[in-house]
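Submission sheet (multi-component)
Chains listed below:
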Amino acid sequence: MALSKHKEASFFRDSFFNHLPRLKRFSTAEASVRTGAPGSPRERCLTMATVNPHVKAVEYAVRGPIVTRAGDLERALRQGQNQSFTEVIKANIGDAHAMGQQPITFLRQVVALCCFPELLESPSFPDDAKQRAQRILQDCGGQSLGSYSASQGVECIRRDIADYITHRDQGVPSDWNNIYLTTGASDGIMSILKLIVSGQGSSRTGVMIPIPQYPLYSAAISELEAVHINYYLDEDHCWALDIEELQRAYLTAKQQCQPRVLCIINPGNPTGQVQSKKCIEEVLHFAFEENLFVMADEVYQDNVYALDCRFHSFKKVLYEMGPEYFNNVELASFHSTSKGYTGECGFRGGYMEVLNMDPQVEAQLVKLLSVRLCPPVPGQAAMDVIVNPPKVHEPSYAQFTKEKNSVLDVLAHKAMLTERILNSVPGIKCNPVQGAMYAFPQIFIPPRAIQEAQSRSLAPDMLYCLKLLEETGICVVPGSGFGQREGTFHFRMTILPSPEKLEVLLGQLKEFHLRFLEEYSQQEPQIPRTAHDQHRETSEQPA
Amino acid sequence: MALSKHKEASFFRDSFFNHLPRLKRFSTAEASVRTGAPGSPRERCLTMATVNPHVKAVEYAVRGPIVTRAGDLERALRQGQNQSFTEVIKANIGDAHAMGQQPITFLRQVVALCCFPELLESPSFPDDAKQRAQRILQDCGGQSLGSYSASQGVECIRRDIADYITHRDQGVPSDWNNIYLTTGASDGIMSILKLIVSGQGSSRTGVMIPIPQYPLYSAAISELEAVHINYYLDEDHCWALDIEELQRAYLTAKQQCQPRVLCIINPGNPTGQVQSKKCIEEVLHFAFEENLFVMADEVYQDNVYALDCRFHSFKKVLYEMGPEYFNNVELASFHSTSKGYTGECGFRGGYMEVLNMDPQVEAQLVKLLSVRLCPPVPGQAAMDVIVNPPKVHEPSYAQFTKEKNSVLDVLAHKAMLTERILNSVPGIKCNPVQGAMYAFPQIFIPPRAIQEAQSRSLAPDMLYCLKLLEETGICVVPGSGFGQREGTFHFRMTILPSPEKLEVLLGQLKEFHLRFLEEYSQQEPQIPRTAHDQHRETSEQPA
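Outcome: structure written.
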C-alpha cells in the first residue's frame, strides 16, 4: 500500500520524529490514523491472546514483581525521593558479589590471563595462575577464549572436573566423557528436562520436585508442559526428605501421568537443609525401584555450615550402594560457579555429570546442546579454577586458601546469626541453616492480614514481603513463590549481606514483624509463641 | 532390596573397580548379573523410545556427523596414524579465532580489566580501555563481573547499544528499553520463537524461514513443535529474496497452519548475499500486510564485502517506510559478538532490539529470560566494546582501527578469492560472496554418485563432503543440512582460513572435485560446463 510514501516518511523523520526523545511517544495515535482505523490501533500479531500459553504459565518468584518494585524504589532513592530507609537491600537472590563478597583472586587472575594472554609476560601474575591459563588456552581453538568450544565443553576442563569429582568422592571413578559444561546449572537442568519430557495425556512425563523448591524447576516444568509432582519436605524435621511422602506423591501422581524424573536439591534451596547419607540412600533406592531418572542439584556442595552435617554426593552414595545401583540408576548431578565460595554468578559457568544414560540418548543430548554451540568459555575457565585450585606447594595456595576459608567462615557465622535472631522473634520460626545461602523461616500472618491480602488478590506472604520492602527497603521473596504447605507462610532471605548489614537487616525485620502483628492483630491481642506451633495444631495436613 | 549390601559394595570398590580405568567397562554385565536378569540389562527410564520426540526431530548440520568424523580424524592424526593429509581444516563453522584470526586488542583489554580490576592500576593498559571497564563495572552489582546482571542485561550496555543503533541507522531513534542482551544471537532467536509459538492443529504457529537457512532456525522450530514454512531464495539471482516466492510459501502454508513469523538472514547464512533496500522494503510490506512478526538475523551486519552492496538494517528501512509501518510492524533484530570483525564466539555475547511488542507480552519475555537469570556478563562487556569502540581522539583508536580494517580487508579478499577459484572448477558454480563468512556453491554430483549415496542412505552431498573430508582433511557441511531446491546439491564452507591456507584448501578442493567427477562419471564422460546450467535445464521446479 505505501511503498510510494517514502517521501512522506522522510518528512516525518525530519520534522517530527527528531523532536521526540523516546520512540514510544508517537506510537499508537500515529499508527491508528495512518492505518485508517482512527481510535483503534492495529491489532498486533503477538498479544496475550496468542502468546505461548506455556510461557504464560511460567512463574519465577526470585525475580518476580517484588524485585521489580525493589528496582523502582532503588531508582526513586537515587533520584532523591524520600523513603523511610536509605538503601534497598536485595536479600532476594543468591548473588554474593552484589552483596559485597570479593572475588577469589586466583580465579580472576586465571580468567584475565586467558582473556588477555599478553599478561602471561607480566611479572605481577603468579606462575601457577599462568600455568592454569596456558593449559586452558592450549585446549581452545586457535588458543583463544573467543573460539567456540566443543558443545560439551573444553576437553581439559572436562578432565579436570572428572578428577575433582573422583577426589571429592574419595576414589569413586568419574569418566570425563560423562561431563558436560553448562551455562550455569540452570541450563543443564533445563537441557536434561527437555530431553526427558514426552508423552501425552496420562503418559505425559511427571517430574517430582520438592516443596519448597527452587522455582527454576516449576518454571521449566511449566515451559515444557510436563506434570508437576510435588513432594513436601518435612519442616518439623529440619526440612528432611521423608521417603513415605515421596511414595505418597508418586502413587497419587501415577494415576494422572508417568512419573519419570525425581529432582532433589541438596543442600536445600530455599530450605538450607543438608541431607543425611541415610536419606540419600533411601531416595536412590526409591528411584531404583520406580525406575526414575534422578536429577541431583548439588550446586551448594561447598556450602555446608552445621558442624554435624556433611555433604554426601548422590553419586558417591549410589556407588556405595553397590554395582546394581551404580550401574543402573540414571543420574545427573549439577554444579555451578555461581555459589560455593566463589559466587561467580555473572560468568554463567557450570557442569553436569550424567551417569548411565543410554548412549543413543546421550547422542541426542549432545545434538541438543550443539544447537546453542557452546557454554560461555570464560565461565568454563572459571569452573576449571574451582575444580583445580592451587595445590599445597604452589605459589597461590596460601592466599587462595585464606580467601576461600574466609568466605566460608563468614557464611557459617551468618547462617548461625540469621537462625538465632529470626528465632528470637515471636511469630517467626526458622529451621537451622545447615547449608546453602538462605533462611526460609515460617512466619505467622494474622487472619486479618490474610483477609486483606485476599481482598487485594495477593498471597498473604506477598502482602507481608511487599510491606517489608516498602517500610524497610529489605527485599525478600514470599514463600508462595517456592511452594509451601497450605496454610503456612514463609519467606526466603539470603544470608549474603555483610555480617554488620545482616545484623541491622535482621533487627529491622524483627521490628517490622512486631509492627505487622500489632497492626493486624488488634482483635486477637495474644501473639502465638511461634507460628510453627500454632500451625501444627490447626492447619497441617497432607496436601 | 540392597541397602544391606554396603560391605559388598565396598569390596567391589577395593578389589575390582580400582583396576579398571574407565567406568563403562564394568557396566552392563555386572548390572545384569546383580539385578537377577542375566543377559538382559535392566531397562532404562530414558531410552530412544521415551526421549522427547521433538528433540529427536532436531537436526543441526553445522555440528553434525561430518564434524564428529572430522574430530575422529584429528585424533587419529595426533596419535600418529597416517592419512593422505597432515591437517584437518574445519571450514564447517564460522569460528574465526579457531582459524587463527587474532582478537581485537582493545576488546580483550576491556574484558580483562573488568575481570581483574587490579589491572586498572597497571600502566600497561590504555586509559580509554580503563574508562570503558570502569563504566561497565559501575553498573554491575558490587562492581563485579561476577554478579548477576538484570535479566535484560547491564543498563549502561543497553544504553550504549541503543546509541550504536541510532548512529548506525543515521538517527533513527532506538530506545534502550527495547534492548535485551542475549547469550549469543541463538539464545535471543530461541527466546522470541518460544514466546510466539502456540496453537494446535491448523492454528499452530508457522515460521517462515529462507531455504537455504542457518539450521538453528529449523532446529528451534522442531524443538518447539512449530510448523516449518520454507521460502526458497533465488540462486539464479544471487540468492535474492523474491517476494512472489514469499507469497507462494505463505499461501500454501496457510492451509495447514497459522503463519505468524517471518525470519530473514541478512547478510545471508549460508548464502552470503546482501539484500537490497528495495527487497527489504518489499519484505516488510509483506509482513505488514500479513501481520507477521519479523525476525531479522543481522549478525553479519559488519561483514559486507562486495563494493556494490551496503548493509541496510530492517529497522531503518521500516522507519523510512513511514510511521504506519514503523509503529506497527513487530520486529526483533539480532546481533552477536561472534561474527563481524571480532569473532568472539566463545564469549556468547549478543543482543536483540524488539520493536512494537505488546507491553504485556514484553513482560512475559522478561519473565522468560529471568528464569535463566542473565546472559554471561563477560560477553555483555565484549558486546559493549563492539557498540562503543574507541573514538577518534582516544589513545586506542589507531590500533583498534588498524586491527578492525585488517580483519575486514582480509575477509573481503578471501570472499573474492573463494568465489573466483570455485567458479574455475567445472561442475561448481558459486554466487558472489557479498557478505557474511561463507560460500555456498552448487556442485554437480553425477547420477552414479547419487545412486551410491542412496544405497548407503546418505544425502548425495553428504557422500561428497564425507569423501572430501576423508581424502583431503577439509571439513565442510553438506547443503542438505541447510536446505536446497530438490535435485540441487551444495556445500557450505567458511572463508575463514588464512589466505595462504584458503588458497591451498581451494586447490585441493578443485582436485578432489575433478577426481570425484571422474570416479563417478565413467559412463558419462562429458563434464557439464556448470552444474547450475545443467540443473536449470533438468530439475529446477518450485518445491
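Remark: Chain A has two domains: 61-98+404-538, 148-387.
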